[in-house]
Structure prediction request, 243 residues.
Amino acid sequence: MKPGADPSTKMAQPAPSAVTAPVVIPSGTLEALKWLGLVLMTLDHTNKYLFDGKLPVAFEAGRLAMPIFGFVLAANLARQGAYAAGLYGRTMRRLALYGVIATPFFIALADRVGGWWPLNILFMLLTAAGVAGLLQKDGIVNRIGAIALFAIGGSVVEFWWFGVAFVLAAKWYITSARVAALVVCALPLAGLQLLDNGLWALAALPLMVAAPHVDLRLPRLRRVFYLYYPLHLALLWFVKSIL
Prediction:
């Protein structure tokens, strides 16, 4: 140590997990995006399960729901000190719980391969959070675990590996603000075309770019999305069963 140096200087340096992400989205704006995603998802599911996909514009608008939810999840996982504070574990437990609750209605609404495949979007988000959590840790075992979870988990969930990859790319964009990361976000969204989802999901990219510059003042309602997802599927199943 040089003469006159403050011995506390090294201790005062922030830990890597405490560094604020370069892309900061106001909490109210994230909440507004979540509500937009809920509206678009409800419109899409109503069109799909009750109107046989015949409502105009509903299918195209519904393609934005998954990227919006994925972006919101990525923003939460990228929060300052999120991993150290246990946010990853809490988020994953909630996604697993409500994903299981929603599963009977998700299966009842449409024919699934083998009676269950694919698992609903909450399991896709769960897989993405799990991969992101493993990547937060050091060591080759965690890297191999992340690759394995991505490969296996992505094969059994809605939106496949494209959805998982998008969430991971969105987190990279938020933590780096790199144009290259935004381009990587576009690749899995474009890949959804292979699932007959078209290219409408790419319309979520302008929302991602604009979000940090819009400060909306909406109160945060905890667990609304988690509760709403199985409830809206149950309601759609009930209406469909009596029509």
Notes: Confidence is low (pLDDT under 50) at residues 1-19. The chain has eleven helices and no strands. Residues 4 and 10 are 14 Å apart (CA to CA).
